[in-house]
Amino acid sequence: MNKAWSLRTRLAFWLIVPVVALMTLDTVGLYYRALVALNSAYDRSLLGSARMIGDLLEIKNNKLVSVVPYTVIEFYEADNRSRLLYRIKGFNGEHVAGYEDFPADPAGIPARATHPTQVSFFDADYQGEPLRVASLYQAVASSDDRGLALVQVAEPLSLRQSKARKLLAETIAWQLVYLAATILLTWLVVTAFLAPLRKLEQTLLHRDPGDLSPIARPPARELVPLVHALNEVMERLNHLLDHQRRFIRDASHQLKTPLAVMKIQLQLAQRSDTPEPQLIDELAQTTEHAINVTNQLLALAKIEQVRGQANTAPVNVEAIARQVMVGLSPLISDRALQVELTGDTPIITAHSWMVEQLLANLLSNAVRHTPEGGALGIDIRSGEEVTVRVWNMGPSIAPEIADRLFEPFSTTDSLRGTGLGLTICREIVRWLAGTVELCNFNSPQGTGVEAVVRLPGEISQA
Amino acid sequence: MKALVVEDDAQMHKSLCRALARWGFATASAMDGPEALAQWQQLCPAVVLLDLSLPGMDGLNVLQQGRALGLTTPVLLLTARGTVGDRILGLNFGADDYLAKPFDLDELEARLRALLRRVQSTPPASLDRPRSLGSLVWEPSGAAFYCGEEPLGLTPREAALLRALVERPNYAHTKEYLNEVVFKHEEVQQDAVEVVAHRLRKKLAACGVTIVTLRGIGYLIKAAA
Q1: Does A312-461 carry CATH code 3.40.1060.10?
Q2: Partner residue opposite A330 with nearest CB, options B171, B173, B215
Q3: For A340, which of B83, B174, B215 is closest by C-beta distance?
Q4: Domain ranges in chain A?
Q5: pTM
Q6: pLDDT at A310 over 80
Q7: Could you tell me where the DSSP H helices lie in B44-146?
């Protein structure tokens, strides 16, 4: 079985994991939007510088002359990582001013444009350093000449990259703070949420071990069905415990009685001057009774024990019936009873021990309740279900007590019976998924009592 | 002839020793597993009566270790557990027979006798004394039957049937079993044993015993009422 997840873990997992995923997505989005804004701001200022330089272009003596004001350059040198590179080309692409080794234009920048101030930006590489370049065609005119000069200004990308990294770090830091707050909040909410369950747990834990009274008030409306179920289980347990307590009380009574009788019989024997064979016989009978009670109690306990085991096997019901008759043959011959074994020989799946106990108890009841010289027998029929009738000619049973006889320690013969035989039978039959009942019958030969056992169908005809 | 009794319950122990002494055994006793093993090795008893539940070391362990030491003494297991599982386990571990508590002394006597016969040692005289039912008397070996003092003239088949019946007086023996015992592997009719039983019944008429037919089950022998 998998280890059960706590509700807290479950709630925390399903709240925190999606929140983390959403925040990651949000961080990525935020960063990219900020990057776009950052780039466009830098580009704009770069373009501003290009414009400023372009505005100051003049034609003197038929020559294009540029004056780059220091303020433009100085602005970029404020930061020690930054500097401004520039180049100006004349109307025919000739070099006018600036860095001669300025990176070449990439393909696609129109040398001539219809618009007087055509602007474009591109990234380039200058002596191993990435640059951002702004190109601007500036219209220059004088009385002598007019044309488009190309003004190009560049700054290293490293500055804006470091700014972007800083931005990213700040964004992540803030998101982590939000995440921590979310986790804390989730924890608090979950704790508050689980409080009613915890209360129920404490109520149950602090009960007395024997307290099976129902729980009065569920701590939350959603817990009402659970509390109802718990109360029902406890009621059932209470019944079971009651039943067992009664059984133990009765069982100890049944065990003690023959021991008490034995003690008295022994003391009587010890105190009499002449040996009394009759006392010894009675003592033997009492001992036999104590053994019977013990065996029956153990059998009842063993049914519980065997119930948990699955080692069933094909069992020949007729063979076991025969074996049981052999076991009881001394009693049968003592009372000169006419015994019969009739019917089919079905095979069922069961524990042979259980079938033996079942038939032995029913037959021993039949033997005890048959008058001297009377008839009894076992009749086995197989069909849809296997029916075993253990019958005897003898006094009938009042229908109102027939069912009660299956209860522990109820017997019509307290001298010889233990009151457990039919209880054992009922438990075994229940385990074999069958039924057992006691009824009276009339036949041409006379009236009698039969115990009818019905068991689920046989597996094959032997 | 020595018998080793390994039993931790003092009362049970005392009673067993008394019974064994009555049958002519000299008894040695052990109350727990290690003591039992030591005695078993030292005394070389003719038979060991071994209780399964012992303090310290389980009876099955004692049995297993004894067999591992090469001790071949016949072992009769005694137990209050008495479940089929225990029985099979005990026999697998090298026990020779098995008796569930509470048992009849007669049953114990019969098992001991059978056990000693199986290893071809002669049981003590009193254990091997003639048995009787009514005025029917027979040797435990089943060699001869007497009606009082008079030897009974029985055919081999009648003797085989009677031997089988007196193995366990008062208890029924199934017809199938008796057929097998009386006719061995001969192919005979199902009711052939009835003919033998009928003749045997006549010969036993004066011996104070009756052979009872339980219809559908088989036959049993008991003292006549």
Answers
A1: no
A2: B171
A3: B215
A4: 12-164, 207-306, 312-461
A5: 0.63
A6: no
A7: 59-68, 84-92, 105-118
